[in-house]
MarR family transcriptional regulator (Streptomyces inhibens), 170 residues
Amino acid sequence: MQQPPLDHVARIQAEWARERPDLDVSPQGVIGRLHRLAGLLTEQLCLVYRRYGLSEGEFDVLAALRRAGEPFERAPGELAARTMVTTGAMTKRIDRLERDGLVTRRRSASDGRGRVVALTQAGQDLFDQAFTEHMHNERRLLDAMSPDEAAHLEALLTSWLAHVEPPRTT
């Protein structure tokens, strides 16, 4: 019976095994494949975002606002924290979304120095359409595995992430 061809990561591991037999390169089997998979999945997810004229970061901002619930608004610093970007990067995203009529900025009613970013109706409508397609796309990608495999992988990733990700302070 013929062996299936080596995937990209297995070829790299074989090269390292030849060049550095003194090192255990087995972690690349998991880390390398996760890294490659993340890149490939991101490409597939961004196809949907682009159909709606959004970047991945802009989609994340709209998602954070939509998840906030009525009235679909958050402070810029809170948005930055929830999307894990710097406030400078957040400002650029908000600028573009505001220019496109998807969000508005106003002074905070509770803190006159603070600002609030809110979804416009156009932003909510666009996001709801994009999110529906996004979830169908994620389902399509995940359907490459059986439901049991997907559940097992989710449990493994949840456990591993709990060990690697710093605990939330808020």
Summary: The chain is about 65% helix and 5% strand. The chain has one domain: 8-19+29-141.
